[in-house]
Amino acid sequence: MARKDGKPGRLKQILETYKLIAKSDRKIGFILAGIFLGTWAIFIIVGLIVGLVLWLTVIGASVALLLTTVVFGRRAEKSAYAQIEGQPGAAAAVLKSLRQGWFVTPAVTLTKNQDVIHRVVGKPGVILVSEGPDSRVSSLLANERKKTARFVPEVPIFEIQAGNDAGQVPLRKLNKAVQKEPKSLKPAQVTEVRKRLEALGTQPIAAPKGPMPKSVRASRGPRK
């Protein structure tokens, strides 16, 4: 059922996520059912042995549901990353799930080889995130860093290469890598840096589409 704000309800979100996982993991239904029923059965058997079957049956159902939910969430996250892996704009799709206080500008640089650089502004300063092989994006990052520094010379600038090559950060670890950078700006300074960098413009690029689990879905809060 849809909510009053027009967004899909919780049940619909779960069903969409399940369908997403099932596309690449046809056994997901059996796995989840096995985890729930297996965990519940253990509690019931223990309850029969110790004479607390009613109490442990109730507790077991709660534990089984919790465990099944955790596995479901992890499978959903893994499936979501797998489906966007290798697509131009995949890193931007992940970066946009950063919480409030981070401002993501996709494709500040885009080449004919589909190498991309995205810009993230937050408390650490400016973080340039590339997509593409190291042999090509290293020079792109250096050029973008120089261009950015002309607009915000006093602000720290960091570089992160998203990808699976040696020294690069996989998509599933990208947001954590961004958030680990040392903080040096206050919220008002973050806003000022973002506004000053808006003049640099962007390149048009379509981010990968499809339902994503909450942990990697675009969250609340402003995005650029």
Can you tell me about this structure?
The protein has seven helices and four strands, in the order ααααβββαβαα. It is α+β, with helices and mostly antiparallel strands. The protein folds into two domains: 75 residues, no CATH class; 127 residues, no CATH class. Strands 1-2-3-4 form a four-stranded mixed β-sheet, sandwiched between helices. α1 crosses α3 and α2 packs antiparallel against α3. The longest helix has 32 residues. The protein is elongated and about 75 Å long. The C terminus is likely disordered.
Please describe the topology of this protein.
Blueprint: H1 10-24, H2 28-50, H3 53-84, H4 90-95, E1 103-110, E2 116-122, E3 125-131, H5 134-151, E4 157-162, H6 171-179, H7 187-197
Parallel strand pairs: 3-4
Antiparallel strand pairs: 1-2, 2-3
Key phrases:
224 residues, alpha+beta, 4 strands
Would you kindly provide a brief summary of this structure?
51% of the residues lie in helices and 12% in strands.
Largest sheet: 4 strands, mixed
> Approximately how much helix is present in the residues?
40-55%
Mean pLDDT: 83
How far from one another are the termini? 30 Å
List SSEs in N-to-C order: HHHHEEEHEHH
Strand order of the largest sheet: 1-2-3-4
Number of structurally distinct domains:
2
**Which structural category do the helix and sheet elements fall into?**
alpha+beta
The portion of residues forming beta strands comes to 5-15%
**Number of helical segments?**
7
Regions with little confidence, pLDDT below 50 for 5+ residues: 210-224
Shape: elongated
Number of strands: 4
Radius of gyration: 22 Å
